[in-house]
């Protein structure tokens, strides 16, 4: 079998916003008053709250105030378990009363207690609307975009290399 590059009409080359698994250095910019810090999202589940077991430990919030799940589509999904504001009209997450979720896009803002969080990810890896989003023309003709990569396979390769999927490694 030979692999050939498809031939496209001049000026018609598919482009994509599908980057590799976890690409674009996704992170949170976190602030309260004069305090500022950055938390890089490197795990598939990030817990935010005042409990010592949380990945992002912030005072004056619920023990588990929010979670961010890196899902199978390489999206980062925020679920607020405590009071807070979100960018978008939240959707109910599961059966838990008071829990709301949204897919985070670059610039998405949410709050937990006195803290403000802003999600950031390099534009090439943010899977939102391609070609400039609404500025690119919500109803304009947009070139086709290839299917998303097989993120399960990409994630599996990364786990194989790190041994993260094994309960016991080298022992």
TrEMBL record:
Start and end residues of each stretch annotated as Disordered: 1-20, 129-171
SUPFAM superfamilies reported for this sequence: SMAD/FHA domain
Residue ranges with Basic and acidic residues bias: 149-160
Database matches in InterPro entries: SMAD_FHA_dom_sf (IPR008984)
TM region(s), chain numbering: none
Protein name: FHA domain-containing protein
Species name: Microbacterium keratanolyticum
């Amino acid at each position: 079998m030979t692999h050939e590059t498809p031939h496209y009409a001049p000026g018609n080359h598919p482009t994509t916003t599908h980057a590799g698994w976890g690409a674009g250095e996704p992170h949170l910019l976190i602030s309260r008053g004069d305090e500022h810090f950055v938390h890089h999202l490197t795990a598939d589940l990030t817990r935010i709250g005042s409990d010592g077991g949380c990945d992002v430990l912030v005072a004056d919030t619920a023990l588990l105030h929010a979670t961010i799940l890196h899902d199978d589509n390489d999206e980062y999904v925020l679920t607020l378990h405590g009071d807070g504001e979100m960018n978008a009209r939240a959707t109910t997450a599961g059966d838990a009363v008071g829990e709301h979720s949204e897919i985070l896009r670059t610039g998405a803002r949410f709050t937990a207690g006195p803290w403000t969080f802003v999600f950031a990810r390099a534009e090439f890896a943010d899977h939102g609307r391609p070609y400039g989003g609404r500025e690119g023309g919500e109803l304009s003709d947009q070139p086709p975009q290839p299917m998303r990569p097989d993120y399960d396979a990409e994630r599996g390769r990364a786990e194989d290399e790190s041994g993260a999927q094994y309960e016991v490694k080298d022992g």
